[in-house]
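Worked example 4.2. Below are the chains of a multi-component assembly; read each line carefully before continuing.
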Amino acid sequence: MGGIALLSVMSSLLSVQSQEPKVDVSLLPEAQALASGRPFDVVVRIDLERPWHIYWKNPGDTGIPTHVEWHLPAGWKAEPVQFPAPKRFESGGTVSYGHEGEVLLISRLTPAPSAKGKFTLKASVDWLACIEACVMGRAEVETTVTIGGDSSVAGIKSKVLEQARSGLPKSSEGLQVITEATADGFRLSVGGLPRVGTAYFFADSAEAVAANAQQPLRVDGTSVELTLKRSPYAKEPLAKLSGVLLVTDPEGKSHAYQIESNILRTTNGGT
Amino acid sequence: MKNIIITGLACVAAVGLTTAWAAQGATGTPGSAAPAFTLADSNGKNVSLADYKGKYVVLEWWNHECPYVVRHYGVGNIQGLQKQMASEGVVWLTICSSAPGKQGYVDAAQANEVMKKNAGSPAHVLLDPEGKVGKMFDAKTTPQMVLISPKGEVVYNGGIDNAPRARTKEETAKAENWLVKAYGQHKAGQPITNPAERPYGCGVKYP
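Applying the procedure described above to all two chains together yields the following structure tokens:
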């Protein structure tokens, strides 16, 4: 609760226009009763008043990633949070990556091998919410699950989990992905897509691609080639490029893919 | 606004001020010559970067309403750095690139009032309501820090430290401060190991 007290102090230090978004955060396990010893998913639902946005795991030029910190019973484990495919937010020449409205993150937990009975799972969720102004937010949330309970209800997945999964980028299986180093960045070619109208690449890391650089593209039916500029915060040469390719087909429907490939270096590729 | 004089390279940078200004060869990258600029300070005096040739100069992007700036000032971190740098003869210029009506915008009187209330001690608070100098230096967030060498070369441009999630004074104090690190290395004639770290915080509130 220390976090909440601090938040209110910070809020009071804020401007006269101390306008803040309404945010409702909840933890929604895939089921209340779960099988022993098996990993299960919890949806972290952040319902954010529009038109505010919070940030993706790579926030782009500004902001900081939305963060979930679990406080779990001894022996439990949490995998990194899975984020839905991001959107671009542009303001005054900076480009940020984030989410608005109902944001559904997925966190996979593994109970301790010996865990049996009722458990309270707690998490601290924090974010930066911006429109023009930015406001920090934090919520302490919890939920209860029963491990090794009634096996007839164990394993029934919640609707909200289905919904959260449908928002994740799809696997790149079946796509042909090639990344080449160029003098000042990368050339990303992806084939085997639905018919491409337009496309945009969200790098997983702010230290890979400059978020505010344009991404000139060449479309050839179901293939696309994007020219990406290296991030000014890039470290030593990257071995792999990974991120979400968002393709909009000519009918305006969006398709997001999680892609990753080794970076090919030719003699004139200086990256 | 008429007393803002942008000279030299600024005009070159301004050509690229489309949606992707950084992509089109923004100046202010580490290892390059710092672009010349002149801005009015909060006492109505014109201040030029060229005035400080031969000295280290720190540029601090500032939006006093941004929660990250509130945190760094709230725990005394930036004020401490300002004092420490001043004692070493480093010139600290705090720059406000918020546009009128946007978060963190201050006029001259407000700039003095807020800085006094925060017990900050920069050499000058510079007013950049059109965001021109911000864009020249590719300033993306508040806070963001730039270090310029006595020869006028950009040594560091990026985030203040490696602890975006820090909240308390203790957590902030434990962070690795990129500005201090780059300054120490440059002064000792060592290579700069972290010349550009991703800045974190609120986007600069450009027009």
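Take a moment to check your reading of the output against the notes. Chain A has a mean pLDDT of 90. The first helix of chain A runs from residue 2 to 13.
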